[in-house]
Amino acid sequence: MCQLKGCYNERLHMLKYSIEKTLNRTKKNTEIYKLAYKYKNMFETTKLTIDDMNNFDIDTKKIGLNEIIRNFEKDMLRLNKKLNI
Questions:
Q1: How far apart, in whole angstroms, are the C-alpha atoms of residue 42 and residue 18?
Q2: Using CA atoms, how far apart are residues 82 and 85, in angstroms rounded to an integer?
């Protein structure tokens, strides 16, 4: 994360880019889209803090991990069906 003095603006720019990319490339009904939309609104109405930026990073990782878990569970169900368990 941002530990160097003066990197707030750079981090803010990268967050804005990440949000715009997510909004442009993701389906509207996904969790990641909803999160990006929430932070875009925050970005436009208030000055984001480092904690806000960190929370965005954490929340995106949580969503990604939940997706991996769901895919793993689906794969396990398919495997169980193939093995007739």
A1: 14
A2: 8
pLDDT attached to residue 4: 62
The b-or-e profile of 16-25 (16+ CB within 10 A means b, else e) is eeebeebeee
d(CA 84, CA 63): 31
CB 39 within 8 A of CB 56: yes
Tell me the C-alpha distance between 85 and 83, whole Å: 6
In tens, the pLDDT along 20-79 reads 999 999 999 999 999 999 999 998 999 888 899 999 999 999 999 999 999 999 999 999
Can you give the pTM of this predicted structure? 0.77
CA distance 38 to 70: 23
CB-based contact 59:26 (threshold 8 Å): no
